[in-house]
Amino acid sequence: MSLAELTDTDLKSILDFTIQLARTAGSLILEGSQAIQSFSDSDDNINEKKNAVDLVTEYDVKVENLVMGEIRARYPDFEFIGEESYSAGVRPPLTDAPTFCVDPIAPIKLPLTSRPKALPSLSKAVIAVEWGSDRCDRTITAKSNSFGRLAGNPEQGVAGGKMTHSLRSLGSAALNFAMVAQGGMDLYWEIGCWPWDVCAGIVIAQEAGGVITGSHEAFAASVDSDAFGDVTEEILKGRKYIVVRAISGNPGESDIEAQKRIIREFYETVEDVPAN
After folding, report:
1. pLDDT of residue 61
2. CB-based burial of residue 52 (10 Å sphere; 0-12 exposed, 13-18 middle, 19+ buried)?
3. In degrees rounded to 5, what are phi and psi of residue 199?
């Protein structure tokens, strides 16, 4: 059978099957999550990391085998390409036959651990940025310089370059906040939004352990006080926002200190501009 031979009814049936299969695989993924979390109370950080990584790999394979088995039982004429089997050397050629291409557990930014991931520096960060609606020369130049330093390689002549993992955006403040809350992005910086653009996103990020503050000045004024992380009326109406996901601190560093460290490094890298 080729793709061209599939009818709309066939495609609807495949969709229904795939949705149910995803739910079945989800149950196995949750089982793996519980197994991995059982190591979270260990005092041996090295063994904890090793055991967690081994279990993630084990459940990657288990989930792929489950998915592959169900697909082959239901659709024996379909092809299957999976991350784990592909890595193990099973690499069927792409043909006109209907083919499932499967990543058993995704995204890799969200490992099945009971603690948020550490973030050693901006060089490891996935950062959401926006050009905004203000495209005047001052703003566009400052943001261009800022984005260039965030992305640039200092060893190749970019002064102050951080060589961050990625700069990206979903085009919506609320969605960017939600992605930081989820862990799909590490940080989001915005100048120019209004309170109604960010209120819902702020609540979502805070409930997920994220921390939000305002401009360079707002951060500097609150970073050493108990009020740090409180979204005051001044911050909410200030139209300058930065949100960082929940982060596990480095040895000797608390989680909130890790978040402050990332914001400080970020604000030392980028230029502030008016929120026109």
Report:
1. 86
2. buried
3. -55, -50
User: Strands 79-82 and 99-102: what pairing?
Assistant: parallel
For the whole prediction, is pTM greater than 0.85? no
The structure tokens listed for 259 are 């978040």
Counting as low any pLDDT under 70, the low residues of the chain are 1, 36-56, 105-115
Contact 37, 114 (CB under 8 A): yes
- Residue that the structure tokens 């980028």 belong to: 270
Q: Quote the DSSP letter at residue 118.
A: B
User: Quick one: pLDDT at residue 1?
Assistant: 65
Say which residue the tokens 């394979």 belong to. Answer: 61
Q: Are 188 and 127 in contact (CB under 8 A)?
A: yes
3-state secondary structure 192-250: CCCHHHHHHHHHHHHHCCCEEECCHHHHHHHCCCCCCCCCCHHHHHHCEEEEECCCECC
Per the structure block, which two tokens stand in for 13?
């049936």
Q: Could you tell me if 116 and 259 are in contact, meaning their C-beta atoms sit under 8 angstroms apart? A: no
Q: Which helix (H) or strand (E) holds 48?
A: helix 45-74
Residues in the chain: 276
List, in order, residues 6 or more apart from 14 with CB less than 8 Å away: 6, 75, 98
Q: How many CB atoms lie within 10 A of CB 96?
A: 11
The pair of three-digit structure tokens given for residue 217, joined into one six-digit string: 């000045």
Which residue pairs, CB below 8 angstroms and at least 24 apart, start in 199-204? 199/236, 200/174, 201/173, 201/174, 201/175, 201/176, 201/177, 201/243, 202/177, 202/231, 202/236, 202/241, 202/243, 204/177, 204/178
Q: What is the chain's alpha carbon radius of gyration, rounded to the nearest angstrom?
A: 23
Separation CA 136–CA 144 (nearest Å)? 12
Is 60 in contact with 83 (CB distance < 8 Å)?
yes
